[in-house]
TrEMBL record:
Residues 121-159 are annotated as: Disordered. It is found in: Membrane. It comes from Cinara cedri. Signal peptide: none annotated. Residues 122-131 have a biased composition (Basic and acidic residues). This is Small GTP-binding protein domain,P-loop containing nucleoside triphosphate hydrolase,Small GTPase. InterPro entries: P-loop_NTPase (IPR027417), Rab_GTPases_membrane_traffic (IPR050209), Small_GTP-bd (IPR005225), Small_GTPase (IPR001806).
Length: 159
């Protein structure tokens, strides 16, 4: 089971003063812009910079173009946002909260990516104290055995 805690600052300036509290311990972030408002896309670079400054260096970040249902009002081309995501090593998806297009997929994708990274890290670096070590083991001395060549000759010789 994966438990996700989601914080939505909606890009509001009043949250800038406490961003370090939001970013501390975060393992994933969705940077969401409105595909119909160029200014929201322009702010993504600043939010990304703040994330990289305050969050863990291994944080998983997904760029999300929201309101894909407003195709006729599109101000941010998908190709431009996708290219930005690639250059900055971000996942990318377009969603619509209005008609639910790709909303669940966006969360599933980022949570899967986080899970995979955390699982690999735990396999590489098991936390101290997590290994079970028996306490009642005493060392034993193992004496060298007879040379194996001699043993083979003795058992396999014909009389």
């Amino acid at each position: 089971m994966i438990k996700a805690q989601i914080w939505d600052t909606a890009g509001q300036e009043r949250y800038r003063a406490i961003t370090s509290a939001y970013y501390r311990g975060a393992v994933g972030a969705l940077l969401v812009y409105d595909i119909a408002k160029q200014l929201t896309y322009q702010n993504v670079e600043r939010w990304l910079s703040e994330l990289r400054d305050h969050a863990d260096q291994n944080i998983v970040i997904m760029l999300v173009g929201n309101k894909s249902d407003l195709r006729h009002l599109r101000a941010v081309p998908s190709d431009e946002a996708r290219a930005f995501a690639e250059v900055n090593n971000l996942s990318f998806i377009e969603t619509s909260a209005l008609d639910s297009t790709n909303v669940e997929t966006a969360f599933e994708n980022i949570l899967t990516e986080i899970y995979n990274i955390v699982s690999q890290k735990q396999m590489r670096d098991p936390p101290e104290g997590d290994t079970i070590r028996p306490t009642n083991i005493e060392p034993i001395d193992v004496k060298p055995t007879v040379n194996s060549d001699n043993v083979r000759k003795q058992c396999c010789q014909s009389s």
